[in-house]
């Protein structure tokens, strides 16, 4: 890092702080402004913020580790979530927006009633908003420390005490200045800047790496010469580092059994922050294109090049910052380091704002101070933001491997996804079923992570155990406990107007038509999935030099685009 690099980094930090504080006055107006932007955020800004949130400084490190250990096919560990994210865009985004909630935990007391609903809301808000959220923030801090060490920054900058800790504390404190002051408007505004910078940084490193190895063709040849041609496979074969059983679990189970399978969590904030359900759908579609089509391949190319130009690394997650250090000249190194700071700060600001929304909206306001004034609630939100960040920083120093922590986050609460999806489309799902699924999923995940005999199982086996093990608990509980009251079901249906046969009884009782046809939404979802996955895999075919993958991927994308447009025209004609 030369003086020019530090000047670029300082410019980025000052610009982010100024931009975040510039919108602070609006975010302090009310709790609605603080957590959902007064429901006036443009769809493209909400979608960009969702994309910025899903990757942090840990993401290029995580992908470098995946490619080194399991090749390109290892990315199915996160590619598999495209099914859930496309379902969110095509089917669920409009339902979430109609519900007009600030958090997904708030939905529980709209969908269910009584003490069971209150218990479910409190359990979900606490578990996901505080301990699990702190783990997610902490593993981003772990990745930031790895970058600081790899670039030698903690050795160059004299800091008191532990230099890694002090450097991360400084960056997080700067993020908190605007995140705590401005709420969601500060988060989404700075997210857009940070997304552009982070994507540009990834493209720059990939371009320099390709120039060094002589282009994509030379890269493929070098991998073949090094005996690493299997790293170029888009799907695994028997005997590859990615077990076939785990790959099957990703494709067949993970996307619909995950605890956020219905688009919940921090995405609900973004979907609830736009003005109407059409804007929510656009935001979700824009996120899918950014997340899977745009961001995937620059980091994969860098990871592949690292297998050729770097010696074997004890920690392959360090490949990305080492490639930065190897190639980038003064000024550009500072720009790309600033892009990693941008990705890190984007995720931290989003996570702490989201966690604070649970702490204040679903715990403090709901159970402690239901009549509190807006100014008091905003103060509580700012305090919660700071406390969550401090706890996350403390937890991060108990972590060592980004990929391992990511897999724990995926596994924790796994198995609840099917309940979360069914509650939108079947009146019979009740609060006790969802609470049982939540608690059972968390307990099974902890056992699979900590019990020695279970911790050694493949990740695919753990996914299957959490999925079907959780079902063994919640399905009997659902049928052994009473259904929700007709009054509660009718009120929820009138508010969200979900489609499908699962609400026929309620629909006939209320006389209210659904907001859209579920069959059409599912067809549109299939078309969007073909478009997004086709573009992603078609570009991958170009990278790996496979005409079959390229032609098949782009052909599927074209068919998906035409199908999606056809469904849109059909929906407009009915309206």
Write a compact overview of the structure shown.
The chain has 575 residues and is mainly alpha-helical. The protein is 77% helix and 0% strand.
Describe the structure.
With 575 residues, the chain is an all-alpha fold. The protein folds into two domains: 3-411, Sodium/glucose cotransporter; 517-575. Helices cover 77% and strands 0% of the residues. It has 30 helices and no strands. Helix 29 runs antiparallel to helix 30. It is globular and about 70 Å long. The N and C termini lie far apart (59 Å).
- State the fourth-level CATH superfamily of the largest domain: Sodium/glucose cotransporter
N-to-C order of helices and strands: HHHHHHHHHHHHHHHHHHHHHHHHHHHHHH
CATH fold-type name of the largest domain: Sodium/glucose cotransporter
- Class of the largest domain, according to the CATH hierarchy? Mainly Alpha
Number of helical segments?
A: 30
User: Structural class of the secondary structure composition?
Assistant: mainly alpha
Report the average pLDDT across residues.
83
Number of strands: 0
The count of domains is 2
* Major sheet summary line: none
Low-confidence stretches: 156-161
Name the overall outline.
Answer: globular
Distance between the termini: 59 Å
Radius of gyration: 23 Å
Q: What would you say the CATH architecture of the largest domain is?
A: Up-down Bundle
Beta fraction: under 5%
Question: Can you give the helix content as a percent range?
Answer: over 70%
């Amino acid at each position: 890092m030369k003086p020019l690099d530090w000047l670029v980094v300082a410019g980025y930090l000052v610009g982010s702080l100024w931009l975040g504080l510039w919108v602070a006055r609006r975010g302090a107006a009310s709790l609605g402004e603080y957590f959902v932007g007064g429901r006036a955020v443009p769809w493209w800004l909400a979608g960009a913020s969702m994309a910025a949130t899903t990757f942090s400084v840990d993401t290029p490190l995580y992908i470098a580790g995946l490619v080194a250990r399991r090749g390109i096919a290892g990315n199915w560990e996160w590619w598999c979530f495209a099914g859930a994210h496309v379902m969110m865009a095509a089917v669920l985004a409009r339902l979430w927006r109609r519900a007009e909630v600030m958090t997904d935990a708030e939905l529980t007391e709209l969908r269910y009633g009584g003490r069971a609903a209150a218990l479910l809301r409190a359990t979900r808000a606490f578990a996901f908003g505080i301990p699990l959220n702190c783990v997610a923030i902490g593993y981003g801090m772990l990745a930031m420390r790895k970058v600081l060490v790899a670039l030698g920054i903690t050795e160059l900058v004299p800091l008191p005490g532990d230099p890694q800790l002090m450097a991360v504390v400084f960056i997080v404190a700067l993020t908190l200045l605007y995140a705590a002051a401005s709420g969601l408007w500060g988060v989404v505004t700075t997210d857009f800047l940070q997304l552009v910078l982070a994507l540009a940084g990834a493209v720059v490193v990939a371009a320099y790496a390709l120039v060094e190895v002589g282009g994509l063709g030379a890269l493929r040849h070098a991998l073949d010469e090094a005996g690493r041609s299997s790293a170029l496979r888009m799907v695994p074969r028997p005997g590859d580092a990615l077990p076939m059983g785990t790959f099957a679990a990703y494709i067949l189970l993970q996307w619909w059994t995950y605890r956020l399978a219905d688009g919940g969590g921090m995405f609900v904030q973004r979907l609830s922050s736009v003005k109407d359900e059409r804007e929510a759908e656009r935001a979700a579609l824009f996120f899918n294109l950014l997340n899977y089509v745009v961001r995937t391949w620059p980091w994969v190319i860098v990871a592949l090049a690292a297998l050729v130009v770097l010696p074997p690394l004890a920690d392959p997650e360090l490949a990305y910052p080492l490639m930065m250090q190897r190639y980038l000249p003064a000024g550009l190194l500072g720009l790309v380091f600033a892009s990693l700071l941008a990705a890190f700060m984007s995720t931290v600001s989003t996570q702490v704002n989201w966690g604070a929304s649970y702490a204040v909206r679903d715990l403090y306001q709901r159970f402690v101070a239901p009549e509190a004034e807006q100014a008091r609630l905003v103060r509580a939100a700012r305090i919660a933001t700071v406390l969550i960040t401090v706890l996350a920083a403390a937890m991060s120093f108990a972590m060592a491997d980004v990929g391992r922590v990511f897999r724990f986050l995926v596994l924790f609460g796994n198995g609840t996804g099917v309940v979360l999806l069914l509650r939108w489309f079947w009146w019979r799902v009740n609060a006790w079923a969802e609470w049982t699924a939540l608690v059972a999923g968390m307990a099974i995940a902890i056992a699979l992570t900590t019990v020695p005999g279970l911790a050694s199982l493949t990740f695919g086996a753990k996914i299957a155990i959490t999925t079907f093990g959780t079902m063994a608990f919640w399905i009997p509980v659902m049928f052994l406990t009473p259904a929700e009251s007709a009054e509660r079901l009718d009120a929820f249906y009138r508010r969200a107007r979900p489609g499908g046969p699962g609400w026929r009884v309620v629909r006939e009782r209320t006389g209210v038509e659904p907001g859209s046809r579920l069959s059409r939404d599912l067809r549109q979802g299939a078309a969007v999935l073909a478009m997004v996955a086709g573009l992603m895999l078609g570009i991958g075919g170009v990278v790996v030099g496979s005409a079959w993958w390229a032609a098949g991927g782009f052909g599927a994308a074209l068919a998906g685009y035409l199908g999606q447009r056809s469904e849109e025209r059909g929906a407009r004609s009915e309206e």
